[in-house]
Q: What sequence folds into this?
């Protein structure tokens, strides 16, 4: 059964895309903070959080690998739409003119896979791309990825598997850690060890460093593939 491992990167949309009422709604709680420094700090925090909400942010990159062959694609938005004519390899970097083209290309690939593997995809990646696709009227070819939670088919979310579906809550033996922590614990090269993290996406976008975003996203997916293999061999028992 073909398994698609993927990860997305997102970036906040410009504030001027939202009208006065929307901006007031986003920062409403700031108006209730009397201390000017605390108010400014909270506004900055909310502005950073906008990257995590599909109504205030966009998908700027999706990296995909076949779990068995480790071949795949990295779709990324960029101002330079020329294809990469470098040496062919197992992963193709595909520049996209905008988010609509990126999501359309993603769903065209997704329809060929029976199962997906993610890290926190049920909580973030899948609902994000579902809503962004709906907002942009991009046809979704797989609408079953948020189905029954307590199974790994068609969606194996490693964040849920490694916490045994949050069996012990936030502070118990099976508490959730981030991908970086799991990778380091299991001896996998962490995608964050190369100097870029998910919180850098807005800055990298503003600086036009699109390829760096794509390469970081691919490192995330490669790490997820290795973590999936460890989970499958040592915890799940699937052959």
A:
């Amino acid at each position: 059964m073909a398994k698609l491992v993927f990860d997305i990167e997102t970036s906040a949309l410009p504030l001027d895309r939202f009208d006065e009422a929307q901006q007031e709604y986003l920062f409403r709680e700031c108006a209730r903070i009397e201390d000017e420094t605390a108010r400014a700090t909270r506004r900055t925090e909310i502005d950073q959080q906008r990257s995590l909400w599909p109504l205030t942010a966009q998908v700027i990159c999706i990296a995909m690998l076949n779990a068995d062959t480790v071949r795949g694609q990295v779709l990324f938005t960029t101002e330079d739409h020329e294809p990469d004519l470098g040496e062919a390899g197992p992963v193709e970097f595909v520049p996209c003119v905008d988010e609509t083209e990126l999501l359309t290309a993603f769903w065209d690939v997704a329809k060929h896979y029976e199962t997906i593997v993610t890290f926190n995809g049920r909580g973030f990646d899948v609902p994000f791309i579902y809503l962004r696709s709906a907002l942009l009227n991009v046809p979704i070819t797989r609408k079953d990825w948020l189905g029954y939670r307590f199974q790994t088919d068609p969606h194996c979310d490693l964040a849920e598997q490694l916490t045994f579906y949050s069996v012990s809550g936030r502070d118990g033996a099976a508490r959730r850690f981030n991908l970086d922590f799991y990778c380091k614990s299991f001896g996998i090269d962490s995608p964050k060890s190369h100097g870029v993290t998910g919180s850098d996406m807005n800055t990298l976008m503003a600086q036009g460093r699109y390829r760096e975003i794509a390469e970081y996203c691919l490192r995330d997916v490669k790490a997820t593939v290795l973590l999936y293999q460890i989970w499958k061999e040592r915890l799940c028992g699937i052959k």
The chain has a mean pLDDT of 92.
